[in-house]
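User: Predict the structure for this protein chain, please.
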Amino acid sequence: MNLTPWLSRPCLNMRVNPAKYLAMLALGCCLITPALADPKGMLETIRKHKFLASTIPENGDVNPYAVVVAPVSAGVIQKDDVLVDNFNNISNLQGTGTTIILYRPSTKETRLFAQVPQRLKDCPGGVGLSTAMTMLRQGWVIVGSTPSTDGTTRTKGDGCLLVFDAEGHHVATWVSPTINDPWGNIAAIDRGDSATLFISMAGKGLKAPDVVDPVTRYPVIEHEATVLRLELTIPPGKPPVLQSQTVIGDGFANRADRDNFLLGPTGLALGADDTLYVTDGLDNEITAIPEASTRTTSAGKGRLVTKDGLLSWPLAMVMTPQGHLLVNNGKNGQIVEIDPSTGQQIYAHWLNTNQAQSPPGNGNLFGLALTADGKGFYYVEDDINSLRISTP
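Assistant: Here is the predicted structure, written as structure tokens:
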């Protein structure tokens, strides 16, 4: 009897022991497994991980950070193209990357989308493109700069937000006292002629990485990172205009770091009920800010959703169509799925098992974005400067 078709059925992909299954078949038993039920979340369905492209452009920039899937076709961008920016230059100095690359899934081609001077005069401290990036339906691409000149927070500038048109041309720079090192991935409400952006600001109060706590011997931890809401208007045929800014969250942990430049709130995801979820890597937790688009005051860190457990320095975060959160870990190569309504940590799934780090994959994951069909996700691997995809 050929049992191969049985052994390849989906129900046996859920940790069922094939030897036990064969024994039960021999006894005429009927095996019922949880896999016959609907999956508890997205990660249960993920089976394939594929390398797509190098993220290193001709100028040699490395350390890919933000990942964004284009919602529309505009200029040189086609709908569902993937944009990735770089945080380091060819010398691997953090806070000095100046490029955004574009990957086209339909043709598997990669090209340079945009590049700006590292010492851009209108941006305090220059340019180091961070995880804060989004593309609006009108074709405008907005990306944060968290800059340095020596690769450490010793020479950190306050940074800015840069606006590019759909041809990759830099058209506007936004600075203000509340814009202080845009760091976390951008959550957005896009209405076409206006938009609301949510971005974490991680630079306030940071010292040089050699200023250490005398007890822990680590750089001093501050709790001065914020979440900023920006209201934009988008005139027809003209770049977005920044109309107002409101701090809706504060007190998040941040500190300088020799290996990672800085540590601060990174992942932002907006729920259908207007709750903004935020990852705080240093405190190893996810919190929730209610009424994110309408509140006029800060919620502080918000309500605790989940802490520790499978989380290991949570970084970039997205919301699945099912309403769960997917979060990349910074201290290992795992992605974690969470039900925010209960705080349950459902699964941890290995994306990067590079044994050169301890634990495997430590420091290799950062940016994250859902595929256009919502069934998988794109992510970057910093260890080999690549864009990858995970699908069922």
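Helices lie at 4-7, 18-26.
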